[in-house]
Design brief:
about 400 residues, Aspartate Aminotransferase, domain 2, Aspartate Aminotransferase, domain 1, seven-stranded mixed β-sheet, three-stranded antiparallel β-sheet, 9 helices, about 35% helix
Length: about 400
């Protein structure tokens, strides 16, 4: 198979940090409040603007709080787990590495006794009906490392007694989130809008706020996890008074991404861009018999972290280690050609490929990379067959 000629304009297909928005350059950061205190008037105004613009695009209910917190989405999820859990039983849904991580923290770090973990293999969802809504329920909306998302929020009880705690880092700004069914929602800047890393966001429903004010965990809370003080909510967190020092360059970049999202149709426009990317991959996969989606059910297929498995009989006959090395060679060959970076499967996932399809990725770039993936697959396979 000859080497393709056309190349994607942007070869960045990483699932985090993700591609910058089309037209991005460092010139867009010139208005950053650098060299100034983030607690000063200008710094706080920019942080508050990130909160306000995020609320508007996502359609966050007026009575929900939204704050910027340390340590990306991981920090936001851990803040929620350490601050809120323990008041009642806990169910965790895990079908990929991050959900498994939250389950591990609940068991091994918080040492929760009344804990149920509902697991599923990569490519599948656990039985959502088994979630106990008298308990707090922790889950990812979109499994970044498996390419599997929950289809909707119908399975979440409207009359739940516990809290629904949702890690939505690769879903926010790309998928509709049913806010009335979600009590805690977390995400980071580095996903769908292509922002920079290390900053997370946490949205809290009135029910979650009530839990914060009425419940004190049995374990000590690190300072960066604390949302109350003296029995009162630290309201400044939700006005741009961050717990630790944020990067004002990252703040400026986040604002640029939000403004770009607004200019491109808001949430509906961002969802449309991401779904168009998934459709392009679906059309290519339908014509490529050697590759398939890791998500077995199309209704649960992610439009952002699009995970693929190799189903060619020659490949599936290989030993697991050989499968992993083969998949890595496909991704490495593309990186060497400077046409696709970071498209290997996540380290804990089955061997394969992963393409980011969030709103900042142009569908034309995906269409340009498909012939290159075909070329790389043929090169790697033919080389291995000849060597054997």
């Amino acid at each position: 198979m000859p080497k393709p000629i056309s190349r994607p304009r942007n070869p960045c297909f990483s699932s985090g940090p993700c591609a910058k928005r089309p037209g991005w350059s460092t010139d867009l950061l010139r208005g950053a409040a650098v060299g100034l205190s983030h607690r000063g008037k200008r710094g706080k105004a920019k942080l508050a603007e990130v909160i306000d613009r995020s609320r508007k695009i996502l359609g966050l209910p007026e009575n929900y709080l939204l704050g910027i917190v340390p340590a990306s989405d991981t920090g936001a999820v851990e803040m929620a787990l350490w601050s809120l859990l323990g008041a009642r039983g806990v169910d965790v849904l895990a079908w990929e590495s991050f959900g498994a991580g939250w389950a591990s923290d609940c068991k091994n770090q918080l040492k929760l006794k009344d804990l149920n973990v509902h697991k599923a293999d990569y490519g599948k969802l656990p039985d959502l009906s088994k979630a106990h809504w008298n308990n707090d329920v922790v889950f990812t909306w979109n499994g970044t490392t498996s390419g599997v998302r929950v289809p909707n929020g119908d399975w979440i009880a409207a009359d739940r007694q516990g809290l629904s705690i949702c890690d939505a880092t690769s879903a926010a700004f790309a998928m509709n989130l049913p806010w009335d069914k979600l009590d805690v929602v977390t995400w980071s800047w580095q996903k769908v809008l292509g922002g920079e890393a290390a900053h997370g966001m946490v949205a809290l429903s009135p029910r979650a706020v009530e839990r914060l004010l009425s419940y004190t965990p049995a374990w000590p809370l690190p300072k960066i996890f604390q949302m109350t003080k003296g029995g009162k909510l630290m309201e400044g967190i939700f006005r741009g008074e961050t717990i630790n020092t944020p990067s004002m360059l990252c703040v400026e970049d986040a604002l640029d991404g939000l403004k770009w999202g607004e200019a491109n149709g808001g949430l509906a426009g961002l969802i449309k861009r991401s779904e168009a990317n998934l459709k392009a991959v679906e059309q290519w996969v339908a014509k490529s018999p050697w590759v398939a989606f890791l998500a077995e059910d199309a209704a649960t297929r992610s439009s952002t972290s699009i995970c693929l498995k190799i189903v060619d009989p020659w490949f599936t006959a290989l030993a697991p280690e050989a499968q992993g090395e083969t998949a890595k060679k496909i991704a490495a060959a593309l990186e060497k050609e400077n046409v696709a970076f970071d498209i290997g499967a996540y380290r804990d996932a089955p061997p394969g490929l992963r393409l980011w399809g969030g709103a900042t990725v142009e569908t034309a770039d995906l269409n340009a990379i498909f012939p290159w993936i075909e070329w790389s697959w043929n090169e790697v396979k033919n080389s291995a067959v000849k060597a054997a």
